[in-house]
């Protein structure tokens, strides 16, 4: 039995002590001392949220399946334990080995959402690792960031030795090899970083310098040591390869986390090209996993975990090429074993309704549409290829099949949005309600139809055609939300419609972090020093402290959020070659202005540039 | 077939709450591919009941659950299959086959055995002497304490709820009433004594270990396992 890093007394005084003890079924529990390369993998949020993350499970598998490496897990201690660890100066530890994070060779931190940035500092600080890359010594692990937020790494560049721009499957094995050799050769930390900087996709911020113009925009971005690449090329995995690491035997947490289920990633990327969507661009091209692999993975995950639910995950599962075959296999298997199949991100049509009908335990709870915009005009602007016709006929089919709850997702504040577009959200909601009363005869109705439109506030993201757009100010967001509310009250079926909107407090900061540059890091550090952590949790987010931190560091939201950028501007992330060509983004930005729809990858390839990656939709018609 | 399993919950598993133990066993049944029966109805659940929850922080070598299986392998195979897909700290130790009309463990339960120790570096310097004194304190004919329930306050005589109490080498053993009719938590036995000597009792200073659960049989207390047939 391993000695725990925390005493019984401490563990019994905090909420959910099982977050900190490891020992979960299917965890590797490799012995720290027996492996030359030790990786601490961190999801900078509380255990319950973190364990649900598939990316984390993939990386955990990827390192642990190597005979020369061990990978352990690190999470943000929750607020109660955070306080105790600071008070008693207990160093942060990894949960399986219970060893201090600082003892590891690598600390990998996954950046899944911008609001985790102060938690990154929390993890470094509690580990006793200097916050800034240049201050670290041979005693410190090499700190690497990855994940979706790494695609604009600049606001947090100062805190990382390396940022990896790409999918883990591609380059991490090579990184271990380079590191091992470098260690054998007795290279210094800086020399190791130089070698890593020459691996494709790995960015070492301290080897580059940025200069600014008087107006605050970037004048230049360039290497300051010899032989570092000018551009960082994003790395993407060839998903046809069934030997890629995958959590075939997923870790089963004792405590029910956010998701008590197995996750089956059917494909990566999306063919649709919505102009606001970062995932739809940075994971191009759409790449299917093989049907064979998915069948094997599903059975292995379910048998080895005992989960009662499996979730098919992707950005748009209906677009998976072998979707029909997959469900034909999976649904009978799951029904026989009393396993629930969750298929979010389904396009609602006759076929998917039929699939859902076959899932035994489906509770016809609610149907989900994500039109994102209320009017067809605005849907053309954002290139959301979902027509009113499709929504209404999908809803009609569903109502006939016994559904009566509909969730609708919209965004407020997208570029070129007018008040009419906002009001149209109410009109569309009402139309769907009308469809219900038109299609379902009185005697068959099991109560009133329930339409739940909800809105979030649009935040422009790097590597999207909207990366140049101006964001709405919080007042504007709220005005639009109220306008929508008032318009809903005028609708015939207003009693069947209940509207929710997401908080706007975090939106401003999310916007800043998403498109910020290196100068933003000082404000993040200042906010952390003032006591900001767990900003992703609205109840713990401290807007006042953030306001102070931004002001003290001269960070103006007008500059970062509330101006339209010129397409000629050097963006903080311009040094990254994401595969989708900047000229495609520009053309899409133009198309948005003109309300011109771009066909999806299967209808017609737009030659976006992502065809340089193998195994994707770009080659489907040539096979 | 109704099977009663005796299991342990030791070491770090003391930090896993009762609900999570239940969920974990549900997954274990599925991993072991046992023919566990499900309740009928809209959201079927496994037919599995637990004798009584164990407090967070306590360990046990005497926990019980009853499960209903369609097809049941031999006892040894059942135990092996469960333990092969669990962690060693949550292992089935023994099992018995219950008659079809058997009452479930929860309703049978009448008493429990506990061992109490001070955690490393906690408690009085001379734990052995401390526990000896405690046992002596409980030699009084009655020990009345006021327990507050949700509704009101009631006076109870702890002596009536303590069936056995002894100290050996710094370990306190007790057998106390457990269950819906009469229930005494080992912590109350300790805190009452602490109060009597004017000291404060910190529950995290001691480690409580449950070692057996009993039901009231025709000839007195009987470990829960013995209500079924040990051979199957
Ligand atoms: S190259 Fe064509 S098919 Fe491939 S991702 Fe780009 S637009 Fe889609």
Spatial gap, N to C terminus of chain A: 55 Å
Helix proportion of residues of chain B, in percent? 10-25%
At CATH level 3, the topology of the largest domain in chain B is: Alpha-Beta Plaits
User: Care to count the β-strands of chain A?
Assistant: 19
Beta-strand content of chain B: 25-35%
What is the architecture of the domain at 8-233 in chain A at the second tier of CATH? 3-Layer(aba) Sandwich
Give the name of the CATH architecture of the largest domain in chain B: 2-Layer Sandwich
What is the CATH homologous superfamily assignment of the domain at 8-233 in chain A? Cobalamin-binding domain
The largest beta-sheet of chain A arranges its strands as: 2-1-3-4-5-6
Number of helices of chain A: 20
Any idea what the shape of chain B is?
Answer: elongated
Q: Would you tell me the overall average pLDDT of chain A?
A: 94
The level of helicity of chain A is 25-40%
Radius of gyration of chain B: 19 Å
The CATH class of the domain at 8-233 in chain A turns out to be Alpha Beta
**From the structure provided, what is the oligomeric state, counting identical versus distinct chains?**
heterodimer
- The total of beta strands of chain B comes to 11
Ordered list of secondary-structure elements with their pairings:
The complex is a heterodimer of chains A (623) and B (232).
Chain A lengths: L7 H6 L23 E7 L3 H4 L3 H11 L4 E7 L3 H10 L17 E5 L6 H11 L14 E5 L15 E3 L3 H17 L4 H9 L4 E2 L4 E5 L5 E6 L8 E2 L28 E4 L1 E2 L10 H4 L4 E2 L2 H15 L3 E5 L9 H14 L3 E3 L7 H9 L8 E6 L3 H6 L6 H13 L4 E8 L6 H21 L10 E8 L16 H16 L10 E2 L3 H11 L4 H11 L12 H10 L4 H4 L15 E2 L4 H12 L30
Parallel strand pairs in A: 1-2, 1-3, 3-4, 4-5, 9-19, 10-13, 13-14, 15-16, 16-17, 17-18
Antiparallel strand pairs in A: 5-6, 7-8, 11-12
Chain B lengths: L1 E8 L8 H14 L16 E3 L8 E10 L6 H10 L7 E7 L6 H4 E10 L8 H11 L6 E5 L4 E5 H4 E7 L2 E7 L8 H11 L9 E12 L2 E4 L9
Parallel strand pairs in B: 3-10
Antiparallel strand pairs in B: 1-3, 1-4, 2-3, 5-9, 5-10, 6-7, 8-9, 10-11
The complex binds iron/sulfur cluster.
Iron/sulfur cluster binds next to loops of chain A.
């Amino acid at each position: 039995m391993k000695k725990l890093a925390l005493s019984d007394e401490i563990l019994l005084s905090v909420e959910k002590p099982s977050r900190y003890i490891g020992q979960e079924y299917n965890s590797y529990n490799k012995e720290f001392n027996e492996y030359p390369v030790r990786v601490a993998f961190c999801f900078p949020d509380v255990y319950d949220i973190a364990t649900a993350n598939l990316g984390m499970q993939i990386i955990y598998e990827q390192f642990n399946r190597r005979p020369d490496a061990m990978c352990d897990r690190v999470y943000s201690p929750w607020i109660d334990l955070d306080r105790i660890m600071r008070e008693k100066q207990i160093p942060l530890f990894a949960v399986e080995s219970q060893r201090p994070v600082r003892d590891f060779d690598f600390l990998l931190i996954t950046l899944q959402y911008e609001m985790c940035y102060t938690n990154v500092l929390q993890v470094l600080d509690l580990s006793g690792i200097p916050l800034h890359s240049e201050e670290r010594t041979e005693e410190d692990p090499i700190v690497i960031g990855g994940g979706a937020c790494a695609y604009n790494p600049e606001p947090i560049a100062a805190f990382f030795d390396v940022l990896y721009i790409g999918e883990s499957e591609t380059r991490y094995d090579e990184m271990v090899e380079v590191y091992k050799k470098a260690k054998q050769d007795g290279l210094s930390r800086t020399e190791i970083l130089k070698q890593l900087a020459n691996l494709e996709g790995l960015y070492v911020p301290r080897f580059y310098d940025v200069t600014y113009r008087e107006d605050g925009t970037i004048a230049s971005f360039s290497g300051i040591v010899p032989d570092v690449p000018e551009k960082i090329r994003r790395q993407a995995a060839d998903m046809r390869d069934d030997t890629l690491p995958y959590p075939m035997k997923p870790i089963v947490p004792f405590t029910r986390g956010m998701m008590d289920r197995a996750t089956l990633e059917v494909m990566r990327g999306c063919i649709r090209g919505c102009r606001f969507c970062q995932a739809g661009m940075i994971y191009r091209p759409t790449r299917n996993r093989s049907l064979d692999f998915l069948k094997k993975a599903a059975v292995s995950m379910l048998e080895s975990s005992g989960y009662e639910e499996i979730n098919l995950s992707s950005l748009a599962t209906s677009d998976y090429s072998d979707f029909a075959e997959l469900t034909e296999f999976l649904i009978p298997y799951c029904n026989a074993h009393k396993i629930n199949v969750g298929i979010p991100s389904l396009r609602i049509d006759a076929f998917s309704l039929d699939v859902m009908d076959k899932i035994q335990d489906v509770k016809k709870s609610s149907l989900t549409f994500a039109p994102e915009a209320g009017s067809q005009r605005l849907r053309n602007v954002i290139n959301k290829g979902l027509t009113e016709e499709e929504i209404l006929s999908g809803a009609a089919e569903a109502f006939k099949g016994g559904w009566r709850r509909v969730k609708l997702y919209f965004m407020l504040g997208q570029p070129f949005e007018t008040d009419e577009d906002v009001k149209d959200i109410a009109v569309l909601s009402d139309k769907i309600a009308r469809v219900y009363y038109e299609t379902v005869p009185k005697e068959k109705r099991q109560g009133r139809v329930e339409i739940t439109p909800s809105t979030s506030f649009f935040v422009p993201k790097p590597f999207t055609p909207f990366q140049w757009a101006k964001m709405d100010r919080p007042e504007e967001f709220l005005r639009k939300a109220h306008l929508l509310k008032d318009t809903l009250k005028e609708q015939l079926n207003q009693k069947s419609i209940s509207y929710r909107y997401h908080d706007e407090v975090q939106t401003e900061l999310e916007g800043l972090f998403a498109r910020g540059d290196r100068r933003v890091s000082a404000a993040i550090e200042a906010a952390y020093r003032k006591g900001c952590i767990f900003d992703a949790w609205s109840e713990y987010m401290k807007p006042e402290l953030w306001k102070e931190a931004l002001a003290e560091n001269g960070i103006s939201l007008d500059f970062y959020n509330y101006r339209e950028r010129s397409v000629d501007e050097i963006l903080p992330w311009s040094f990254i070659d994401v595969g989708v060509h900047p000229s495609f983004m520009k053309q899409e930005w133009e198309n948005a202005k003109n309300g011109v729809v771009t066909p999806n990858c299967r209808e017609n390839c737009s030659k976006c540039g992502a065809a340089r990656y193998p195994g994707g939709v770009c080659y489907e018609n040539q096979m | 077939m109704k099977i009663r399993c005796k299991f342990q919950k030791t070491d770090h598993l003391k930090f896993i709450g009762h609900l999570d133990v239940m969920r974990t066993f549900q997954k274990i049944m599925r991993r072991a591919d046992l023919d566990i029966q499900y309740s009928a109805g809209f959201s079927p659940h496994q037919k599995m009941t637990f004798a009584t929850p164990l407090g967070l922080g306590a360990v046990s070598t005497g926990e019980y659950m009853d499960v209903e299986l369609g097809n049941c392998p031999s006892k040894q195979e059942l135990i092996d299959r469960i333990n092969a897909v669990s962690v060693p700290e949550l292992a089935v130790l023994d099992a018995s086959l219950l008659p079809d009309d058997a009452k479930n463990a929860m309703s049978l339960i009448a008493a429990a055995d506990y061992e109490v120790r001070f955690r490393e570096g906690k408690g009085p310097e001379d734990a052995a002497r401390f526990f000896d004194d405690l046992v002596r304190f409980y030699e009084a004919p009655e020990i009345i304490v006021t327990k507050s329930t949700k509704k009101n306050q009631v006076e109870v005589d702890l002596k009536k709820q303590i069936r056995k109490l002894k100290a050996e080498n710094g370990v306190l053993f007790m057998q106390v009433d457990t269950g819906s009719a009469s229930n005494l938590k080992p912590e109350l036995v300790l805190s009452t004594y602490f109060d009597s000597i004017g000291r404060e009792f910190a529950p995290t200073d001691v480690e409580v270990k449950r070692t057996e659960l009993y039901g009231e049989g025709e000839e007195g207390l009987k470990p829960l396992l013995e209500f079924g047939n040990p051979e199957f």
